[in-house]
């Protein structure tokens, strides 16, 4: 998927995750408008130029839920809420009752109460998995009525690694579009957490439609050398936010060229692995620079040319030109995409 955003009249921002699945060009949403001449049997309001009648088909918005699992997932949800992400419902799942008290999510859910008695899992993914199994019914009830479920977690620990695949399984089996957005631990967190993360990601991959994995080590290419350790983890939380918001905004915020939930579902259903990139520029060549930043971003980790599809979003001020949009499109569509979704 690729998202391109003009954040103000002078700045172009592009974020780009690529998804290995067929994409489809999305045209402008159709609104039927027609002009009617005066008619003796017309009950509509008349004026000397005739009557203009427009019909709009009402659209029911998609139900989107963001579920943070474990400490890392709960932190990411707090970050999303703090950033003002809207149009979604937030859930925080954890075995640790004390940690849930720190969650800003409107829907906290403690799992494995009998197993852990309100404590954490001590970094043991097996306990996290068993806790989720114990609370399957409660999880299913929390997800009920969803169209799209984001599952976000930090891989490598106990609850996130163990419970996230179970939450994903419940969601996917219920027929909801299920997207995982997770981080892979920093190298300095140790070999044990890395191995646990790999195993958890493998399980999660089998139970989601689309999976975005963000290796924390790549954040070292973004962060300043003087970045405090705590800020590095906050940066990881913020990247998880970008992954979720980059997709949800496409669905929930109307654009000149619109992409709705049905389009996103067609693209992301059973699509496998996705990658995320963000580009921002306010220079004279902002279109090209932002597009290049997004498609070559450290978080992507490979060439966008290998992607079979791209979804990109452009956001910005009223001064964006047709030529800029065209240049961004040319830069982004270098992949082997069969089809492309574009939102402006």
The separation of the N and C termini measures: 14 Å
CATH class of the largest domain: Alpha Beta
Which parts are unreliable, with pLDDT below 50 for 5 consecutive residues or more? 1-10, 12-58, 336-342
Topology order in helix (H) and strand (E) letters: EEEEEHEHEHHHEHEHEHHEEHEHE
CATH homolog superfamily of the largest domain:
Tubulin/FtsZ, GTPase domain
* Domain unit count: 2
Q: How many strands appear in the DSSP assignment?
A: 14
Shape: globular
Main sheet makeup? 7 strands, parallel
Domain Tubulin/FtsZ GTPase: 63-255
Keywords: GTP-binding, Nucleotide-binding
GO biological process, one term: chloroplast fission
InterPro entries: Cell_div_FtsZ, Cell_div_FtsZ_CS, FtsZ/CetZ, FtsZ_C, Tub_FtsZ_C, Tubulin/FtsZ_2-layer-sand-dom, Tubulin/FtsZ_GTPase_sf, Tubulin_CS
Tell me what the structure shows:
The chain has 344 residues and is of the alpha/beta class. The protein folds into two domains: 3-27 and 275-343, 60s Ribosomal Protein L30, Chain: A (2-Layer Sandwich); 64-250, Tubulin/FtsZ, GTPase domain (Rossmann fold, 3-Layer(aba) Sandwich), CATH 3.40.50. Helices cover 35% and strands 22% of the residues. The chain contains eleven helices and 14 strands. It has a seven-stranded parallel β-sheet, with helices on both faces. Strands 1-2-12 form a three-stranded antiparallel β-sheet. α2 (97-100) links the parallel β6 (89-94) and β7. The longest helix has 24 residues, at 229-252. The chain starts with a strand and ends with a strand. 49% of the residues are buried. Mean pLDDT is 79; it is low at 1-10, 12-58 and 336-342.
